């Protein structure tokens, strides 16, 4: 069965990533499928229209042509309201969705009967998240670079060099969450010679991080009082909490933020899932920060878009095998029924919401996927 796969240009603010690179087009064509790419879709990541044409894609001039012709839409970021009308009822979608933080998008997918798989909840048998991991790695590393930049005086920061120089103290960086993004943030912060603390409730994860960092990072099992104490003395707080598919818990309160020194920096990597810091709200690459309680907040909702080529190469290498399974299997529903990892990522199906955490977050009706197979 031939499937028509559509690759539209991303239109989120300064989002240069693209959901498929040219060699992915060649792979899908080898499997007997057709790929339609919007002209200019890959330019932000350094891929020209000519490269897509050489790989066998059909280039079209605008997004409407992509959405009209494709059975399956493949994106990087979640659809935004100006894209909603382009979808056809019953179409399929494979992208990052982060539905627990977006009730409007959830309701749209249900009303339009879009069958969707979310990259961030595709789960391997070992519990890892193979399509979220590469972007978590990028976001974790970039969060520290961004925090270091916004600590500078011209950016409204406290005027601190993250690692200091001999005779001056280094900045104190507290990372809340020791998962993939938190670990990568810690690597960069340690490399920049900051004083680094990682808070995580998983003692086994902390033991793993102890082996990795060999005593160069303070590792803490947090409680509310302990978190408040660490935040208060921090120059940088990185929010790196993840509850897969669910809205992020608010672990840092406004009072904790207010206790920080003016000009300190918060980078909330969890903002895609609603943020784990009470004072956070989504920002964009063109207007990345705001000041709340005297603290500079960096809460860009598509952090990896800042390094579009690196991010595209990392992401599409991870997604292509799953995308091929979806196309070869005849669509989202069929592929999810035969692949447990894709089944974990199935979010909406023909008007039904199949994610319990999303349903809980928005008070929407939940459908157990097992009942649909009966």
End-to-end C-alpha gap: 25 Å
Helix content estimate: 25-40%
The unreliable regions are none
Q: What is the CATH topology classification name of the largest domain?
A: Rossmann fold
Strand content: 15-25%
Features:
single chain; 374 residues; alpha/beta; Rossmann fold; 2 domains; 8-stranded mixed β-sheet; 7-stranded mixed β-sheet; 16% strand; globular
What's the gist of this structure?
The protein is an alpha/beta fold and 374 residues long. The chain has helices spanning 22-30, 49-55, 63-69, 81-84, 103-111, 133-150, 180-191, 203-213, 224-232, 254-258, 308-329, 332-338, 340-345, 356-362, 369-372; strands at 4-7, 34-38, 58-60, 72-74, 92-95, 115-118, 172-176, 195-199, 218-220, 236-239, 265-268, 289-292, 295-298, 346-349, 352-353. The strands form two sheets. The chain has an eight-stranded mixed β-sheet with strand order 3-2-1-4-5-6-14-15, sandwiched between helices. A seven-stranded mixed β-sheet has the order 9-8-7-10-11-13-12, sandwiched between helices.
């Amino acid at each position: 069965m031939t499937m028509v796969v559509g690759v539209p240009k991303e239109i989120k603010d300064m989002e240069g990533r693209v959901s498929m690179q040219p060699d992915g087009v060649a792979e899908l064509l080898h499997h007997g499928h057709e790929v339609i790419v919007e002209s200019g879709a890959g330019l932000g990541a350094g891929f020209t229209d000519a490269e897509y044409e050489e790989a066998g894609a059909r280039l079209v001039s605008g997004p409407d042509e992509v959405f009209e012709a494709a059975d399956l839409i493949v994106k990087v970021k979640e659809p935004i309201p100006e894209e909603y009308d382009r979808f056809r009822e019953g179409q399929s979608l494979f992208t990052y969705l982060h539905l627990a933080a977006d009730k409007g998008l959830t309701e749209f997918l249900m009303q339009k009967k879009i069958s969707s798989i979310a990259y961030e909840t595709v789960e391997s048998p070992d519990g890892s998240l193979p399509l979220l991991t590469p972007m978590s790695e990028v976001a974790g590393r970039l969060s520290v670079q961004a925090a270091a930049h916004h600590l500078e005086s011209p950016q409204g920061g406290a005027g601190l060099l993250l690692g200091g120089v001999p005779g001056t103290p280094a900045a104190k960086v507290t990372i809340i969450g020791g998962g993939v993004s938190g670990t990568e943030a810690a690597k960069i912060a340690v490399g920049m010679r900051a004083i680094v603390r990682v808070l995580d409730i998983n003692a086994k994860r902390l033991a793993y991080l102890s082996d990795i960092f060999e005593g160069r990072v303070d590792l803490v099992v947090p409680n509310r009082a302990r978190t408040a104490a660490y935040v208060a003395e921090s120059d940088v707080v990185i929010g790196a909490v993840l509850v897969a598919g669910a809205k992020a818990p608010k672990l840092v309160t406004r009072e904790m933020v207010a206790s920080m020194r003016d000009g300190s920096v918060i980078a909330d990597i969890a903002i895609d899932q609603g943020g784990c810091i009470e004072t956070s709200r989504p920002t964009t690459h063109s207007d990345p920060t705001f000041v709340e309680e005297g603290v500079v907040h960096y809460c860009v909702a598509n952090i990896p878009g800042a390094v579009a080529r690196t991010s595209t190469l990392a992401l599409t290498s991870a997604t292509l095998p799953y995308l091929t399974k979806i196309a070869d299997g005849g669509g989202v529903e069929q592929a999810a029924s035969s692949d447990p990892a894709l089944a974990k990522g199935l979010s909406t199906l023909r008007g039904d919401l199949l994610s319990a955490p999303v349903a809980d977050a928005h008070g929407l009706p939940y459908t157990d996927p097992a009942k649909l197979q009966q």
